[in-house]
């Protein structure tokens, strides 16, 4: 059994992580911290976990995280970087669901996240936890930077095209739609039900924090710079991301075959048959990414549709998948979930 | 392994049953029938099942249901009763998720369901599959009448009060709210998104088919007649039933203790602490019923709040729970699901 | 033209009031105050008003409210009572959309609202703005206490039964469902989209602030005490209240006729034909209340279904209706809105 | 007063047209036809219209449409073209909300709509009812082809860029999201609430009927061929279209100024300030189109965000706007609606 600590379990990625760990046969959840809610039973905050998680929130000091095998940070940005050095030195592996270790260029990170990085010397060794790209490096990671939700959907959608170099890399478009849980469990006006329901909008067209993360990932795949336009949108559903990706083919290629071959050994990426339109609910509550690839009217424009559950493959599920890899477990352990539909 | 057939797997109770059976360690799903869609892979209709259910729909004739151990009917009303005799005679046990065997009074059934009963002689031996009431009889049932969704939520909410005889039985009120999946996967105008979203309405105030089923259940608990007003409502959510139940206490009693004691050994009924308000999402995708009991302002009115997922405890999950009992398995096998929230 | 000031126009009742006043032919909106957002154009906060409301928010000091004919308070509870004396002395009439002047028993008010009343001497003269009960007194009101949303739906539903004395007044039940905008535009976790969508729950079963208001109204109609159980629920829609009301008839009476006669001269109360089920969307964005009355199975239980738009007849629309009455205008001026459906 | 007939008033564009005409000061609605529901009061089908529309549906034969000044067809595709000749010959003007007269190339129309055109000789004289392009020709139109919902949002978004020739016309992308009412009021499985809620999907990537209509419009603006990729999506809201449009600038130009100047005299197109993100609810129930234009990171990619209410500016509202133009009325008559938000 793996001794697990969770820092900051009061947000949506936190409760989702608890949902998954509660059924994981090798997970021994020993502590969940919350500064503000220490002492409260976890299931008082999240009644869905009644009977499944018996812990109370504890303060970080009481959590004895240094005796864990792995600690998940389901915190806002800027927390994990402050505690990483101490944990790593104590031999504890760290999985950060926030953004602290995602961007290799520290100055770039500091620009987008508006704060000074507390452990810049650890950034270089952190492994970006997209198993479909970095499985081998994840195995031995001490610090795992779990990808963002938008970056997961977009990278998995572009990956076969960009790795193989068959598209014009200077002009990629990612038009992405997210459910509202992607904005987190913070009390804010714009994500109130009466604001977000029966409504649709784009946001952050001028620049979203996930843009440099996606670009970094695509450039690593391409081995060169890429030009990317990324427009995120808020759609009135709880969970789910739908990425609609546009690129121009520079080489005539069977894109369906390209996708099928690239993902044939991937447990959690499902390439749909030609002509398909994946729905976000077809992956709801599961760790799957389903993708479909189109060439409308036989033109040189390729359209990729990529869907994930932002809280699972886009956050907690991918983190558990990475944990499984890091601890040499079956990669799908605890992730054997049939999507909930309708 | 139990050899299982499913008749009529193209509705919401059908796909939910498949979701549950796909992960049930003792379930060997051998055939799913659909007259209209025979030949189609199940996962073409339900992409959420891709990779989990490899069967194609077959015609009833091709299904060889008589070689199954148990056959689930996830059909419209009036189908199971036509095939029951043959299956029972072949030694196959039958679990009907529709209403054919729920009402013991055949004339009453025929009045509410508007058709002639095809196997009236089998009605008497059918067992009503509410484990919290009938666990012993379920064990040996050949024909299991799986309760309706409203009846499950209402009966589990009233049960401790009615069994113990502490309320005025002549004037019970059940004000119940259902998600739209309760209306099934039929193409109908009133359940279109643009009709049912951002909208709330009562329906069938003059009389709903679940009324006689609930009344029969309550009268069995009470050992006498009851007066019940039942008003169902449609609420804009996919899954979930919330029953708000009103009764007048005829005896002063600690209702919280009454509920806790009655349900202390029940795996799937969770009595919340005093003062709680269960949410439907706290049971989403799980087989749980969560209940809370109130006496506002210390008056003689007792208010019970009871929530279930209509497709699980209100349909497919309860059917699997009954199957587990019928086949002497651990009652929670395949039902070990942490509710999906948010 | 009536010179109008609005205090606190940044919540949902505020923006709804602006929507209505923007098209009211006799409304001359001269000032909208907001302490926090002074200086901001109103339509920067509410883009739906672009081109319709050109004002900026001003501080209360800059608003010169004492030169208005009427001032609406679309504020949290406890604000209007502080400014009422000064405005009334300046000859300005006041319409409070909050609760400061709704409860005649000041001690009772202070208990439920948890604060000391700042103008207890004005409470007695305030008129409760339910036109269907108090039209004559509204005409001359200096202080108008605009009813709450739940109280409007419940009182209009019970009114014909309680005024006529045909039901058992000791045991009335109001099971009421509200859209999420009823909770206001405050940033709170429980009304986030990801919390409130696809979910249903009761709340405040032990006691809700609207209970004493409803009881006071019903007792005024009855001329005696009443016993009321009131259970509010949150339903995943933006606008709308659906009240399901239960009472026992003590006299055999034609309830349909009773309702039709009582409301025959009311512009904004629509009694539906026998057997109807009003939907909340049938009144969306309008000032209508639609009601239907049932006697299921011919029993002595009468069930009333009453729907309103909580932001219109339950708040801003009723306030404008009262203003029209107070200023001797056509009662429907500015309220000539066809409900928006779907 | 204009004598108006409506053919096929039982769908969403029909009921929306009735909502608008009910308050139009020059509209004298004399007949609404429905083959299937003749005899039924309109407000029995649409309770939101109770008290506002007193007509009953009549058969086409009983409607005496030839005595109307104008007849709206709110029918499925293929109906208006059968009755057009007779009406036109009788001097009745015709506004078709369906697609019969939208595509000038009859062969192209027949390919996309899968039927033979019944009045090909009338296609040439039909005027495409986008006032922002064709106001002058609309004035004298005998047959008005009201634009589709997607085409309205996309064309108004691209118009200033394409008319002025500042973008690469060979590679335009329109990623468009529609509320579910766009699919109409037909009973179909995929638009059921339990299918479409909490879900997001693209559809018809291989080709949608609105593609040739949009392309025809853009080519008319450009005076040359254009390359367009159009991907429609279904989003879980009732009303609203959000078009996200991508193009590459071929000339460096102040796009904000370009849009503001082009639309400065348009009543129903609102160009938002730089940096804005229009929400669909900001136009809900109104005839407005709000657009914003971005150049992310100062690149050569221009992103246009364009929102409309699909049932108003995308259907019934635009039809009324065209009627106003055709009958020399104030263009905004009957369309003076403040958007309903929240």
UniProtKB/TrEMBL annotation, chains A, B, C, D:
Asked whether the UniProt record includes Oxidoreductase among its keywords, one would answer yes
Q: Does the keyword Amino-acid biosynthesis apply?
A: yes
**Where does the sequence pass through the membrane?**
none
Per its record, the protein catalyses: N-acetyl-L-glutamate 5-semialdehyde + phosphate + NADP(+) = N-acetyl-L-glutamyl 5-phosphate + NADPH + H(+)
> What positions does UniProt annotate as the active site of this protein?
149
Q: What Enzyme Commission number(s) does the record list for this chain?
A: 1.2.1.38
Q: Which domain of life is it from?
A: Bacteria
Q: Where is the Semialdehyde dehydrogenase NAD-binding domain?
A: 3-141
Copy the pathway line from the protein's UniProt record: Amino-acid biosynthesis; L-arginine biosynthesis; N(2)-acetyl-L-ornithine from L-glutamate: step 3/4
Pfam families, per the entry: Semialdhyde_dh, Semialdhyde_dhC_1
MF (Gene Ontology): N-acetyl-gamma-glutamyl-phosphate reductase activity
Where is the protein localized?
A: Cytoplasm
Q: Which UniProt keywords apply?
A: Amino-acid biosynthesis, Arginine biosynthesis, Cytoplasm, NADP, Oxidoreductase
Question: Family, per the entry?
Answer: Belongs to the NAGSA dehydrogenase family. Type 1 subfamily.
**Functional summary from the UniProt entry:** Catalyzes the NADPH-dependent reduction of N-acetyl-5-glutamyl phosphate to yield N-acetyl-L-glutamate 5-semialdehyde.
Q: Which PANTHER family match?
A: N-ACETYL-GAMMA-GLUTAMYL-PHOSPHATE REDUCTASE, CHLOROPLASTIC-RELATED (PTHR32338:SF10), N-ACETYL-GAMMA-GLUTAMYL-PHOSPHATE REDUCTASE, CHLOROPLASTIC-RELATED-RELATED (PTHR32338)
Protein name as catalogued: N-acetyl-gamma-glutamyl-phosphate reductase
Specify the species: Aromatoleum buckelii
Q: Which gene encodes it?
A: argC
